[in-house]
């Protein structure tokens, strides 16, 4: 059956995939995909530039909340914030890395669920506080950490922030996703209450918490073995 | 509005302009012209974006991507304190160091809750359209004042530190915004409609379980490709969700949409395209593997995604 709409814009999706597989610079891949897609849809030069320009202006709100706290965090880091966080957690010799991250996961997810998405974030919390704390807790139990384990714990701290944020914010009624969902369904002729959308997010939010918390709990169980293995590799 | 998004864009633009100027006059910077141009263009987008023709902005964005692609955007030299100086400072300031960092979320929450009703001289205090973002702006300024008082540094030193952090992240800082832009260009160009046509014409979508799996996995897959669940949602829900799951199998639209969006978020956990969640933190945490955060996330993401398929399937009313 012949499509009654143009399939040519799909070339943009192919450009994205090819660009990432070939490991080109992601900025070039994304802008290339935008230009190719616009051309495939029959846009002229001016229309293509306008589409990219207006899009870039509309999405400034995505980076605003990242730019504004930079000066504060930078100053605090220059004055030993990360070093202090590491020293601070080591007083809690009984808290393990996994327990610490489970608590952070719970706080992050619950806070996001009531709209407090600002409580956390990679620039604001993970780099200065959570990652050094996770490393510090492991160090207090197992001694100096091999680099590989150190990197793994940092990655897990960032992952915990993401999981908490994503599966918390979508059950907040006023969050953009819920607004987007109700607006889109309304356009499609279906009326739903924002509250119902938010409530139907709860089962998945609970699954995400349980799954990730179990992985963090297991992290504690396997850490000693992994550290021993990493030390052996290093020798 | 006092703390309107437009005003906060100016503040952000000034920070970026300062970074550009500091880079331009840094004689030790190995690529100072390219890096200064990159941050300079970006500053102009925030400072004057609304007053310039969109074609100019589009051209500037392409120039920024080319500068990044030609490896012109790299960090400058930054003199850091020694380990002993760090430890000394940390001991002296102690727990007070946490205060400005925690002040950002706490002040943001208080300002969001209280500030919505406040107006000064007839002007509302916060942006009506986006009070949360405006409140984060207020909180950042309060926190900077606290940090300067505590460390006895000037805001100018704060800008130098902002430059150091931006240098660590580099061009990846702009990637999320560029991806959002791509999503908008895709929808202008009709990519969503094309995908919906393909999905409904080449897959046995009249089988209940297949339809559910196509919707849930399609949300994840499209988010993986585009890095943005918001961009995937109109594509998959318009193509499969509404016509098939609701239209044929009578799914509850609210539960379908909520689970669909969360499936998109599982995709976000899996993709380097969601740069600000996956690639930027890897750079921030100085991981040697830029996909290190994704490696830590995939078991959680795939388990939740599988759970979503079954959840949505069992929530469908029985035939």
Keywords:
heterodimer, A: 235 residues, mainly alpha, 2 domains, 12 helices, globular, B: 319 residues, two-stranded antiparallel ribbon, 14 helices, 1% strand
Give structural notes.
The complex is a heterodimer of chains A (235) and B (319). Helix content of chain A is 76%, strand content 0%. Chain A has 235 residues and is mainly alpha-helical. Chain A folds into two domains: 8-59, no CATH class; 65-234. Chain A starts with 10 loop residues before the first helix and ends with a helix. Helices cover 73% and strands 1% of the residues of chain B. Chain B has a two-stranded antiparallel ribbon with strand order 1-2. In chain B, strand 1 (119-120) and strand 2 form a beta hairpin. The mean pLDDT of chain B is 88. Chain B contains 14 helices and two strands. Chains A and B meet through helix 1, helix 2, helix 3, helix 4 and helix 5 of A and helix 1, helix 3, helix 4, helix 5 and helix 6 of B.
Layout of SSEs?
The complex is a heterodimer of chains A (235) and B (319).
Chain A: H1 11-21, H2 26-40, H3 45-58, H4 61-67, H5 70-78, H6 81-89, H7 97-113, H8 122-142, H9 147-169, H10 176-187, H11 194-200, H12 202-234
Chain B: H1 5-24, H2 32-48, H3 54-69, H4 83-93, H5 98-115, E1 119-120, E2 123-124, H6 131-151, H7 155-169, H8 175-189, H9 191-202, H10 208-226, H11 229-246, H12 253-268, H13 275-284, H14 292-315
Structure described in brief:
With 235 residues, chain A is mostly helical.
